[in-house]
Amino acid sequence: MLFSSHIGANLHLNLIPFDGTWQFCKGDSNICICRESLPPSCRRSSATLSVHNEVVTMETEGMCGEQKGLKLKWFDVGPNLTNTQKHAISQLSPTLSNRCKALMRRAICFSPQEENLPFLLASWVKAMKPKRCHWLLILKEMKKLDFPFYFEVMEYALMENSFEPNVRDYTKLIDAYAKTDRVHDALKIFQTMKDRGVQCDQVTLTVLIYMYSKAGDLYRAKEAFEEIRLPDKRAYGSMVMAYIRAQELFLAESLLKQMEAKEAFVGREVYKAMLRSYSNSGDADGAQRIFDAIQFAGIVPDSKLCALLVNAYCLAGKTEGARSCIDNMRNAGLKPNDKCIALMLGAYNKDGKLESALDFLMKLEKDGVEIEEEASEVLARWLRQIGVIEEVGLVLREFLEVKRRGIASSP
């Protein structure tokens, strides 16, 4: 494992426990090992933030640092490293300064079972006196290494004056938390941002729309959207997605029409999400409107978008409409995928139209479209139901044999 426990025994600290309350180290133990939890009075919404504040309080009161004889050898991580850790250390960017390399070596060898990350970071800040540029390089390297505690390091940095955090830093972390379904953490960072008097800008408000919609709070998502004076394409897209998640498809479509009136259009994925919602609910008319809007926006539909429209018609029981969609695909030079064919065969099966299904398959075969796994299973189940699966299988085997002979005899 890349981030494991070979750092703790190699820090060589000399810190005498004070008052028997905090035992950071004992002999060769690690400063980042906290034997007891923080006092309740110091606990806040985030464990990282509360530990950060505790460290600051201790330093202010002269309870850690050089006053206690702390000597941390940052450039010696010890000999007990795995080959994976050695390789990761060797891959660190050569442009990193020594103070950045010092922390990155410790991070690569970090063990959450034996060490405490906030105290490691606090020790680094006290010893190395980093500036914003150093924090940014550290975060960049950790992201490249896929450091499992990247978010925690970023959260800690936001509390450090040396990082000089701005609104964009808070926004990035809120967005990252929301996109990884850590909405509760995103809300905590937003609250911290407000508590520190950092004002939201349009980018932040757009991220908040996404965050609130993921949390299921459509009311606050709308509030954030209404605070944006001149919404751009991304803000509109986020609000449309918020309506889609809340199953308010009428409001989502109304917002799309407002954008169209301004000759502005959301991205392909937003249209696809809208089309999927109508498709899954079997609303063929709604799906067709969105499909038309996609083309009006200058987006060329692919087979996946067409499959969503076909599915809407099939669920609505409009088999001819679904067939018309597939015929339009073929006329446009777009081959229907396996999903489209399976949906069409399923619709014909439901209607009991075997002759129409065979005509459909013959036209596909003429266009060189092969039936794949999903469509084959649908067809096999249908033929089994009417008791002709064995006869069809025999015909297919004879057909394949003739085809094989033809290939073998060809020059």
UniProtKB/TrEMBL annotation:
PROSITE patterns: PPR. Coiled coil: none annotated. Gene3D superfamilies: Tetratricopeptide repeat domain (1.25.40.10). Pfam families: PPR_long (PF17177). It comes from the Eukaryota. InterPro entries: PPR_rpt, PROP1-like_PPR_dom, TPR-like_helical_dom_sf. PPR repeats lie at residues 166-200, 267-301, 302-336. The keyword DNA-binding does not apply. Residues 169-384 form the PROP1-like PPR domain. Keywords: Repeat. PANTHER family: OS07G0661900 PROTEIN. This is PROP1-like PPR domain-containing protein. It comes from Vanilla planifolia.
